[in-house]
């Protein structure tokens, strides 16, 4: 005990001599953004003990309860969480799109964020403000960093190809005076340097088609950052990363992924459901189950649900299907649990598929993808889900819903050739119904043991496990990022 105490005192004395530098993260308060940013913050803090990392938590009404639970159940001594006071703005009625609402809401939080950062700067324990790391949706906070005399970095929660797509479309608008919204409902293809193949207009992100929502203004603002930290890795997106790095008009890019969400404590109810799901998978043969899960906001109308059920039943494959109920029409919210699955599924479906299938609500996605029984993943192509699928070596069938997911789907199927297509240009809330026969054919191709995408995904799985350890590409990029952050503090 005496020796341990002396060692601890020596360590504390060493820490007191080291020059501390304060790094502030401003993530967008949604779990898909926050968890990846927190993982990056932990890795930075763990790599250099001179860094004092604080994560500011803005209170977004829709996600506040889940975020608070995450913070309480994810304690970590290497970083600090600071929850900011609620600031509810009064928005004008003309804000129509979710993207427009989000960007205006973030803008309204500048005051409380500024006050929090100033308080931190005045704390003797924090040291010099070495940088502010902002989420892509919080790009407006780059102005705040300038005001406070601190370098700004962006934590980009999507892939490198999407980052390149945003920059190219912003360039088309601002430098070549071409309105990207003209591509809506077009059969044209756009040359994007971050993609090998021309990108069909039908898979461009939906926000591009609404010139009033500020989406491309984000890309313009990102160019003002000192560096862009991307949740990807060099071996996964080599072409996109090299394309970005060779463009002198784009800040230095640091691919430091994959940032896979840490397992966190769930509610007792979810813990019980999770055990039941894993128990069912334990009874299935290896690589035999196709897993359908469409992210936090993923849900379908009744007609589409019935077509999915038909495709699954006619395929004869084992399946685990996360099926969620849409929020009430016209309300901004997340999908809910069905109280009675029979109200949406075809009559007798649950009885006929009881031996090979299981329909659930919420799913512990990483635990499911990690299970040896799972051999395929029907996904909405959210970037976190893509990285988790690669990390677990599970091939995907693409069924995007919103945001940049259609472009992600195109990248997976056509550029990287590690997925099969269900419908890569599908958009949520459209009138399109994907038929059961098409779904059946896609998932049978996905689960074909001879499909070469399995070999490619397994190779990526092996590479993804090596990039963050010493000598790996992401490990080295983290080192370069830390050197840049600490450069002005010496």
Key words describing this protein structure:
seven-stranded parallel beta sheet, alpha/beta, six-stranded parallel beta sheet, 15 strands
Q: What can you see in these coordinates?
A:
The chain is 41% helix and 14% strand. It is of the alpha/beta class. The strands form three sheets. It has a seven-stranded parallel sheet with strand order 3-2-1-4-5-8-9, with helices on both faces.
Average per-residue pLDDT, rounded, comes to: 90
Structure class: alpha/beta
Order of strands, main sheet, comes to: 3-2-1-4-5-8-9
- Could you give the distance between the termini? 36 Å
Number of helices: 18
Tell me the fraction of residues in β-strands, as a range.
5-15%
A few lines on this structure:
With 490 residues, the chain is α/β, with parallel strands linked by helices.
Blueprint of the fold:
Blueprint (H helix, E strand, L loop, with lengths): L1 H16 L3 E6 L4 H17 L3 E7 L6 H9 L6 E5 L14 H11 L1 H12 L6 E8 L5 H7 L4 E5 L3 H15 L14 E2 L8 E2 L14 H8 L4 E4 L7 H8 L7 E3 L12 H15 L6 E5 L8 H14 L2 E5 L26 H4 L4 E4 L4 H5 L4 E6 L3 H10 L3 E3 L6 H11 L3 E3 L14 H11 L6 H12 L8 H15 L3
Parallel strand pairs: 1-2, 1-4, 2-3, 4-5, 5-8, 8-9, 10-11, 10-13, 11-12, 13-14, 14-15
Antiparallel strand pairs: 6-7
Helix pairs in contact: 7-8, 7-9, 11-16
